[in-house]
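Lab notebook, bench 4. Still working through the backlog of constructs that have no structural model yet. Next entry is a single chain of 78 residues. Request: give me the structure tokens for it.
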Amino acid sequence: MHVQVKLFSQLRNLLPPAARGQISVELSDGATVAYLLAYLGIADQVKLVTVNNQPEPARDRALHDRDVVRIFPAVVGG
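Model written out:
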């Protein structure tokens, strides 16, 4: 299945500039939000995930073909 991933803020820097914070990822059926975050290597940097424009607090939620996942980092300031 293909999942569209959009990264925000400093997470965008993990992708080439030409990607503009957006990639399409091929995952096996049954992959979860947690799997996607681990696959991207950002599981410990994420504050908020939305799937198809809905907040998704459950990391064990199964993803489906053509889902759009938006990933926002934890914000640190001082």
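Notes after review: The radius of gyration is 12 Å. The longest strand covers residues 2-7. Flag for follow-up if needed.
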